[in-house]
Amino acid sequence: MTTVDKTQSVTEVMAEIGRQARLASQKLAIVDTEIKQDAIRLAAKFLSDRSDEVLAANQLDMDAGEKSGLSAAMLDRLRLDENRLNGIVSALNAISDLKDPVGEVISDWDRPNGLKISRVRTPLGVIGVIFESRPNVTADAGALCLMAGNAVILRGGSDSFHSSTAIHGCLMKGLEAVGLPDTAIQIVPTTDRAAVGEMLKGLDGNLDVLVPRGGKGLVHRVQTESRVPVFAHLEGICHVYVDASADVEMAKKVVHNAKMRRTGVCGAAETLLIDSAALDTHLVPVLNQLSDSGCEIRGDETVVKAFPAAIAATEEDWSTEFLDAIISVKVVHGVSAAIAHVTQYSSGHTEAVVAEDAEVAERFLNELDSAILLHNASTQFADGGEFGMGAEIGIATGKMHARGPVGVEQLTSFKYQVRGNGQTRPK
Predict the structure, then answer these.
(1) Positions in the chain whose pLDDT score sits under 70
(2) Quick one: DSSP state of residue 114?
(3) What is the pTM of this model?
(4) DSSP 251-315
(5) Which element (helix H / strand E) includes 241?
């Protein structure tokens, strides 16, 4: 692992990290599946065995975060406890059980001249992950990149430095135990912000893809300044539309979970749309359950009139990612109006429709173009683990290469292998 030499500048340290990652990626591209799986499983075991050390490191970060005035949402993202740590261990084990995408033949065909052409999955190479607060990203990103045959450079925020370093140490032990280079999963050994700038410049061509995980400011900077491709979403302005055909109890359950399960995650619902035909039957029961759980309701004129506990919503509320126990609520005239509202205000992340009318559901799923669309299910299923991917390195809302949860398949590209028996192309 590359360490900081006091005589070296951040630029020199990051350049060396990039060089070492490129060398490691060349080895990882041809490593047997079983070796990668064993490294990840052993890392999970080390993490479980060293849980007390990791939780102690996390407490240092939590104490510092509270002193520095981190928001409740950021502290929630930063916090580790026994259950969350067990979740990280489970995610590592799930990733180790995934099908290895490297070398998979996506498609193949024969040409009339006898050439046999195959499109084959291949690693992207070196992936950089820049993240804030969430220490679980260290494990998820490290394991997913390794499983896909990529080297990874992790740059966590200063607020999660101790937690991420402790988790990274367990990943390193897994690599060492199976004889893989410890430079396959590197963590930037400094909190100096200049390191981010070096990653955005591409580390002398040694960085192939960047994945930012964090607040709007970080993601916007990466998307704006990066010289390498970026997999990211800027905001998670997620919507739930409750149609008049929806079962009331289901609507209450889905909306409550979508907003209140964890308010600080990117898949949390931020806007609720209610069919005007359901105003007398659905609105108050759904909002009562939210309000009783401590959720602030910001509604349009119709909502405020029907639910006096609500406060008047502003135009800005429809395009705000609250990441808190706040939801904006609007009454719309049917699915067409719901689709129009989502199209205008959504960030393209995740939307859900609650409806028993199959035609309404299909229109919602087909006419909207967000990365994830759900029918009769909570938006908080916008998660790679819930998609059966073991975990995710992030959610991508772009339309090129990766979209939605970025798992092992999305961390590969492809190449063409062409086999012949002496063919030459005629003049």
Answers:
(1) 1-7
(2) S
(3) 0.87
(4) HHHHHHHHHHS-TTSTTSEEEEEEEGGGIIIIIHHHHHHHHHTTPEEEE-HHHHHH-TT-EEPPG
(5) strand 238-242
- Position 390 scores a pLDDT of 79
Please tell me the distance from the alpha carbon of residue 138 to that of residue 123, in angstroms, as a whole number: 19
Do residues 153 and 127 touch, judged by C-beta distance below 8 A? yes
The CA dihedral of 244, 246, 252, 257, to the nearest 10 degrees, is: -120
DSSP character string of 19-56: HHHHHHHHHHTT--HHHHHHHHHHHHHHHHHTHHHHHH
Q: Which CATH class is domain 10-231+406-418?
A: alpha beta
Spatial neighbors of 217 by CB under 8 A, at least 6 apart, are none
pLDDT score, position 393: 86
User: Which stretches within 102-193 are classed as H helix?
Assistant: 136-147, 161-178
Q: Where do the domains of the chain lie?
A: 10-231+406-418, 238-381
Tell me which CATH code domain 238-381 carries. 3.40.309.10
